[in-house]
Design brief:
The protein is an alpha/beta fold. Helix content is 35%, strand content 16%.
């Protein structure tokens, strides 16, 4: 019996952005495990509106959203609502350009990865 050929990603490069505590680093780890060339861009900490483009425009730009309550629950309590508002303003260009936007509030890290990987695969 032959082994099925794993489905290959349709995209080569993925950039992940989002507010602190939204799950960027965990998603990139899981994307690497699924065969994607992914990286986090700390756009939320930069006044350069298009920082996410500086190493070239990625095949996919993923925006992860999280509410102040979710960020606090994930141990990022030092990032209050005022700081999140600043981060969201810094992320406005990236959010508008995002290929995929995921509200992570009600999702586990595995579920976020499943949603994103499903959208990135061929035929999705």
């Amino acid at each position: 019996m032959t082994k099925p050929v794993p489905e290959r990603p349709c995209v080569r490069t993925v950039v992940v952005v989002g507010v602190c505590g939204s799950g960027k680093s965990e998603l990139v780890r899981r994307l690497h495990g699924a065969g994607f060339a992914a990286r986090v861009v700390a756009q939320e900490h930069s006044i350069i509106q298009d920082l996410w483009r500086h190493q070239g425009v990625p095949d996919a730009l993923v925006y992860l959203a999280a509410s102040p309550q979710t960020v606090a629950e994930r141990g990022r309590g030092i990032v209050g609502p005022a700081m999140l508002a600043i981060q969201e303003a810094r992320l406005a260009d990236a959010r508008a350009a995002a290929t995929i936007t995921v509200d992570t509030d009600a999702l586990t890290a595995a579920e976020v990865a499943e949603v994103v990987i499903g959208r990135l695969r061929c035929g999705a």
